[in-house]
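Researcher: I'm preparing a figure for a lab meeting and need a structural model of a single chain. I don't have an experimental structure, so a prediction will have to do for now. The sequence is pasted below. Please return the structure as tokens so I can convert it later.
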Amino acid sequence: MEEKYQLAKWLAGEMTESELKAFQETAEYTTYTQIAHYSGKLKTPQFDEEKMYQNIITTEKSTPKVVSFYQAKWLQIAALLIIFIGLTFVVKSEISFTEYAENTQKTTFTLPDDSEIVLNAGSEINYKKWNWNNQRSLELQGEAFFKVSKGKTFDVETALGTVTVVGTQFNIKSRENRMEVSCFEGKVKVQNNNQITDITKAERVIFENNKQTAGTFSALLPTWLDDQMHFESENLAAIGAEMERQYGFKIAMKNVSLQRKFTGTIPSNDLDVALKIISKTFHLKATKENTTIILEGK
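Model: Understood. Here is the structure written out token by token.
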């Protein structure tokens, strides 16, 4: 209310010098001056005084309605406020909101419909927070676990496909040219190019290099929520990139094929153990140099 009163005084030119100086320092002053500038350019139709006079004297039982200067001024203020509120709503409805998990970190947040999302390290989600009911879709880069409120539905867009959900729990991992979707409860629909696949509880589908692989699993929740990195036939390059996200070290590979595959689990909270597993599996020698870990073929 105080903000509207100050705006009214400013528009009416009734502010004192000190009040005007304080008002000009507010964050809203620039917006108000722009609105006043453009609204001042609005033109009213030409007013024919003689024609109006003749209409008045020839009209029986008509009482002219007089609008005072102050009434007109308040009508202008009301119109400007309506324009300002409308512009604010439009701008907010189009602003994208971003949730981000930095390397070595995990982030948990809640959507406007109370669905819960956990982001894995080096991942982000973009969505329209202020217009959620009309645009129920997310853009995911990386990996996230979704616990959707019962009866709620939305789409998760990734670079490799779209996942449509209704009241379920599932995990999406979308990195480089590979997307892996695992359903932990309910049912999800996965669309990759022109192919649509439905998966239910304990089922997984993987899309990589335009190839689809289906499988099952027994975990109750994604292993990364419990500080474990699980890889399902993933190459050494992808494993090194995931280790970089989880530990914050640069992983350099020497004299080793980056396309060699690995299926298994390594910890994301114990670097020494993780390096031992990778070194033993691929017959590599691990060396630490400042913030870089070199994995070299023996």
